[in-house]
C-alpha cells in the first residue's frame, strides 16, 4: 500500500470515529459535564411528563383525580367497608331526620324599677321584664308534625317557639299542652307538609347493658340543627329521685344511661339499637363535681311519655283515668301540731266520697297515707305522680296511719259513680 492510500485510510477512519463520537453524545447527553448536562436531562424528563399528560382524557381535573384516589382504598377491601355499617349507624340514620332543635323565646321577670305615673303624679316600683332565648331538643312523633320535648324546654309561657329541622328548614310551633309534674310538652309545627317521624319502642322491654343513643343538639352548637349522637349503654332501670320541695317536677322510674347528655340535649330521644325511642332525655346528675356530664344521664320511659302525650293531645292537660274518691293535703309540722297527729311524711285525708273506691277500701278522714304501692310518699306532688302510675281497673295498695297504728288496704280503681 502506497503512502497516498494510507493517508486516505487514516482520514476516513478519523471521520468515522468523529461521527461515532457525535452520535454517542446525542444519545447520552448526561455524559456532558457541568450544569449544562443537568439542564439537558431535566428538559428531556419534563417533555416526557407533558407528553404523558397529553395522552390523558382532557375532562379529568385534579379534583376528580383526588376523588378517585380517595375512593380507591375503600373499593380494595369491601369487607372492611361493609363492617362500618352496623346496628348503631342504622339506628342513627333511621331516627336523625325526626330529631329537631328547639329555640324558645319567653319573657322573664327579674328585679324591679321605678316608673313615673303621670296620673298619680308619683313613682311606682314595677317589675322588669326581659326577653330570654333558650335552646333544647325534641323529636317528631307523627307526619302531622307533633313534637315531644321537656316542659322545662318549651311550655305555655313561651312567647315564640321555633323548630329547626336537619335539612336547615325552620318553622314556628305552638304548645298543645304541657305537664310540669312529668316534665313533658307536646308541640305542633305550623306547616302544611308531611314530616319524618320517630317510632316509640317499648320501655318495659329495655335491658340493662343494651346499647343506647342520646340524640340532640347539645349547647345549641349547631345552627343547621344537625343532631349530635353519643353512644353508651342502659346503666340501670327504675331510678327514682326524692322530690325537691322547691321543685314541682317529680322523676320516678327513670332510665339511666352513660351516653353523654349535656345542656341542649334535654327533650331529645334516647334510642335503642333498633332506632326506636325508649325515653326522653331529661337531666343529668353531676354529684356536685361539675356542670358537665359524668356518665349519669336520665330519661323518662317511653311508655309513660306516650300515656301523657295522649292526654295532652286531647285535653291539653293530664288527669287520672279514675276517681280515687278522696281528697288529700300534704302533711306538715303545723298540721301535726294543730291536730295532734304524728309528724310523718304523707298525705292527710280530709274528705272521702261515699260512692268512691276510697270509702269502699275503708279509708276515712284523718288517715295519713304513707305509701302508695311500695313507694313511700314524699310530698303531695310525689303522691300525684304515684297515682298516675295506675289506671282504671287497677288495684292500688295503700298503707296508712290511723291512731298511731299502721293499716294496709287495697283500692279497686274505677270512675266515679254518677248520681
Automatic annotation (TrEMBL):
What GO terms describe the biological role, i.e. biological process, of this protein? Answer: proteolysis
Query: Which superkingdom does the taxonomy of this entry point to?
Result: Bacteria
Q: Where is the composition biased (Polar residues)?
A: 59-85
Q: Which UniProt keywords apply?
A: Hydrolase, Protease
The UniProt entry, under InterPro entries, shows: Chloro_Bact_Ser_Proteases, PDZ, PDZ_sf, Peptidase_S1_PA, Peptidase_S1C
Q: Does the keyword Hydrolase apply?
A: yes
Spans annotated as Disordered? 55-85
Q: Which residues form a coiled coil?
A: none
Report any Pfam family annotated for this entry: Trypsin_2
**Which GO-annotated molecular functions does the record name?**
serine-type endopeptidase activity
What sequence ranges are listed for the domain PDZ? 328-404
Protein name listed in UniProt = Trypsin-like serine protease
Amino acid at each position: 500500500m502506497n503512502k497516498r492510500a494510507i493517508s486516505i485510510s487514516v482520514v476516513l477512519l478519523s471521520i468515522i470515529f468523529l461521527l461515532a463520537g457525535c452520535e454517542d453524545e446525542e444519545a447520552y447527553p448526561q455524559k456532558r459535564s457541568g450544569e449544562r448536562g443537568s439542564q439537558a436531562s431535566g428538559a428531556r424528563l419534563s417533555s416526557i411528563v407533558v407528553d404523558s399528560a397529553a395522552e390523558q382524557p382532557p375532562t379529568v381535573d385534579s379534583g376528580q383525580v383526588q376523588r378517585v384516589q380517595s375512593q380507591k382504598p375503600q373499593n380494595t377491601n369491601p369487607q372492611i367497608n361493609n363492617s362500618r355499617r352496623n346496628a348503631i349507624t342504622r339506628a342513627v340514620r333511621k331516627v336523625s331526620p325526626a330529631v329537631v332543635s328547639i329555640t324558645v323565646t319567653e319573657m322573664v321577670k327579674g328585679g324591679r324599677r321605678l316608673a313615673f305615673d303621670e296620673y298619680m303624679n308619683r313613682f311606682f316600683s314595677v317589675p322588669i321584664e326581659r326577653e330570654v332565648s333558650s335552646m333544647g331538643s325534641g323529636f317528631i312523633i307523627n307526619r302531622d308534625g307533633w313534637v315531644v320535648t321537656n316542659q322545662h324546654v318549651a311550655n305555655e309561657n313561651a312567647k315564640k317557639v321555633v323548630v329547626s329541622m336537619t335539612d336547615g328548614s325552620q318553622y314556628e310551633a305552638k304548645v298543645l299542652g304541657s305537664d310540669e309534674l312529668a316534665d313533658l310538652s307536646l308541640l305542633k309545627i305550623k306547616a302544611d307538609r308531611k314530616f319524618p317521624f320517630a317510632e316509640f319502642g317499648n320501655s318495659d322491654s329495655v335491658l340493662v347493658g343494651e346499647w343506647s343513643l342520646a340524640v340532640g343538639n347539645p349547647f345549641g352548637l349547631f345552627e343547621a340543627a344537625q343532631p349530635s349522637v353519643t353512644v353508651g349503654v342502659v346503666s340501670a332501670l327504675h331510678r327514682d329521685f326524692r322530690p325537691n320541695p322547691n321543685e314541682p317536677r317529680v322523676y320516678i322510674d327513670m332510665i339511666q344511661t352513660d351516653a353523654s347528655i349535656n345542656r341542649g340535649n334535654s327533650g331529645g330521644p334516647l334510642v335503642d339499637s333498633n332506632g326506636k325511642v325508649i325515653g326522653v332525655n331529661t337531666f343529668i346528675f353531676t354529684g356536685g363535681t361539675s356542670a358537665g356530664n359524668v356518665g349519669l344521664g336520665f330519661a323518662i320511659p317511653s311508655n309513660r311519655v306516650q300515656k301523657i302525650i295522649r292526654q295532652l293531645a286531647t285535653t291539653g292537660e293530664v288527669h287520672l283515668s279514675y276517681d280515687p274518691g278522696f281528697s288529700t293535703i300534704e302533711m306538715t309540722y303545723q298540721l301535726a301540731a294543730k291536730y295532734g297527729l304524728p309528724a310523718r311524711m304523707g298525705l292527710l285525708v280530709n274528705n272521702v266520697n261515699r260512692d268512691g273506691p276510697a270509702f269502699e277500701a275503708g279509708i276515712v278522714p284523718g288517715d295519713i297515707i304513707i305509701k302508695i304501692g311500695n313507694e313511700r310518699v314524699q310530698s303531695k306532688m310525689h303522691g300525684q305522680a304515684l297515682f298516675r302510675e295506675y289506671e282504671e281497673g287497677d288495684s292500688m295498695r295503700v298503707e296508712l296511719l290511723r291512731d298511731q297504728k299502721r293499716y294496709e288496704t287495697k283500692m279497686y280503681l274505677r270512675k266515679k259513680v254518677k248520681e
